Amino acid sequence: MAPPTWANNEELDWLTERLPHFLDHQKRKKVQSFFRTLYTEWDARYPERTRLFPDIELTAQLTPEQEAELMEAISL
Questions:
Q1: What is the pTM of this model?
Q2: How much is the CA Rg of the chain, to the nearest whole Å?
Q3: What is the spatial distance between Cα 41 and Cα 7, in angstroms, rounded to a whole number?
Q4: What distance in Å separates the CA atoms of residue 71 and residue 33, rounded to the nearest whole number?
């Protein structure tokens, strides 16, 4: 049995849709450009803050402890 994935089904579908773009960039040796765009789009669509704190509005102020937790998660 395969281990559980870190991404949910919606996220996996979104990533899978981008596979042809990745392969094209890989062939052209432009993978860095692909990932720069991918990370920007991913963060806009699936903010880490929402994953960590689903019950806190995006406009609400986080506590210093929550900010530290978010910064740690983003840096991984």
A1: 0.77
A2: 15
A3: 15
A4: 24
